[in-house]
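Section: Multi-chain targets

For targets with more than one molecule, the full set of components is provided together so that the structure can be written out for the assembly as a whole rather than chain by chain. Components appear in the order listed by the source. The example entry contains two components.
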Amino acid sequence: MSAPTSEAIVAITAEAAAPGLAAGLLRRLRSDPLGLLGLCLVLLVVFCALTAPWIEPYNPFKIRVPERFHAPSLVHIFGTDDLGRDVFSRVIAGSQIALGVSVSSIATALFLGLILGLCAGYGPRWLDNLLLLIFDSLYSFPTVMLGLTVVTLFGPSLETLMSVVITIQTPGYARLIRTATLATKNSEYILAIRALGSSSGRVLMIHILPNIIGPILIIASMDIPSVITLEAGLTYLGMGIPPPAASWGRILQEGFDSIRDAPWIVIAGGIPLIFTTLGFTFLGESLRDLLDPKLRRVV
Amino acid sequence: MAAAAEPVPATTANVLEVRDLSVQFRTPRGPVLALRKVSVDVPRGSIVGLVGESGSGKSTLALAVMRLMPANATISEGSLRFAGRDLLSLPASEMQRLRGDRISMVFQDPMTSLNPVRTIGMQMVDIQYRDRQMSQPDKRRKAAEMLRRVGIPDCERQLDRHPHQFSGGMRQRIAIAMGILEKPELLIADEPTTALDVTLEAQIVQLLRDLRGELNGSILFISHNLGIIAELCDYVVVLYAGEVVEQGPIEDIFHRPGHPYTRALLECDPARIEEVCRELPTISGDVPNLLRVPSGCVFAPRCSHAIDRCRNEHPADHQAGPGHFARCHLLQGASDG
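Its structure, encoded as tokens over all components, is:
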């Protein structure tokens, strides 16, 4: 996510976005094969994550040493790893972690960003300046450096990983929401609503918020793949979710040790990661184009 | 307005009394005096027209009365009394309770003055938040009834539609319905017809005239169109570059304008040009830069009758008829002699 473009999207489309969004989305996707592909990939991952316990052919954690390094076959579609665990089952289980970590941490970051951004955009000037200073200092911190520092200090765990993601994402959302709030609060209908006696709280919650939330939700959904990649990357470096969790990053890391003897493990761990990232990116770009035809890629 | 020239203020008779109101805007190039010692009365049950060019301070006055001025504007002096209460000393929460309930406002552009993501019904129920006794269905019924009164057909169904599903004229009717929903004592209409075409303009003016009889409230009607003011209003206040240059009963001002600016405005109204001419008459020159207000009469640089005194000395209000005042040196002889 690049901040200036996103801020522009929010500012331009804040008004036009909300009504008819869902209908326009479907219409748009029908004429956009890439967006449709993205939607299918996303739905596939979501389906896997939701139904994982039922569609996994084997227990993803069950160690069967005699069956180690079996090449892909009809019995084990993606083969088995160094401990004889079924890689396909682990990939399916990994979708739960990938989506769980990314969606819940993005949702938390969005919620925090929403509160802080609305305060900065609608509150007094000094509060705006103070919050902006905090957002900018957090925002300018290199992601991986922050991740590594926090993991080194607190030890690798699911919670550490999520708090890193939340810390990184919140200032970005808060800035977007602040910009959109500023643009909306100076519009004539907000003045008209105030002239009809609405209190600041009502203006903020029932008039400004619904006007800005649509585009921001879409931008947040476009951040999901980068969080999945970050999770996999940190796990691969040994800084993410500790074993025996079946995260895609962990499958990659464990597979890397035996890449010469059993390359299918690395491939099986990498492909879902690529597909998920591409799926969310295609879908997100399609949604972004729907929101703002002016930003449609010309290349 | 000079105190001596004022008509005796009867507090109960006026729903709104603006006295010596001065508003200042902080700008990067220095303070702009958007309003200077403006005094306007709105008698109960009457329609007062506020006329002036762009930038004369009409909307600033309206927003000052609502206490909704932009952050860089301050009221530097004067008082605002609404139904006998001093608006400027009210705490913000009290002022907020008055807005929409006892003083209300309709804005210029109906295409931008309604929240696009909420239905008309939701917005109209929102306005009634003060009333805790009334049930939600009753509030909806009240909203629908008000839509019917402003001439919107099939009003029950319209409550569930969004603003973008209505035309401009319909939207302005809805905005008016919202403004008068709580039967305010004062409705400020800030150029409510400027963004509409002539047919719709006539309809909205007719609507306001009808509503006035039913609601028994007062209207402060802001416009740059003298024709509409003449049709609708009882009194006129002519604002020029942040000053009231003339005010009085409508008939008097239209038949015997006291100030050269008012006279020029009347001559410029295309509807009143009697002889066939190839060019529209205009007032030459421009509104003075309010960063540096001229020391004499504000209109002197553009006035064809200006004498030396006009450029050096700020004129006082002179009586031009009963309740009719104009701020012009040329009237001095007439009123004194």
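The first helix of chain A runs from residue 3 to 13.
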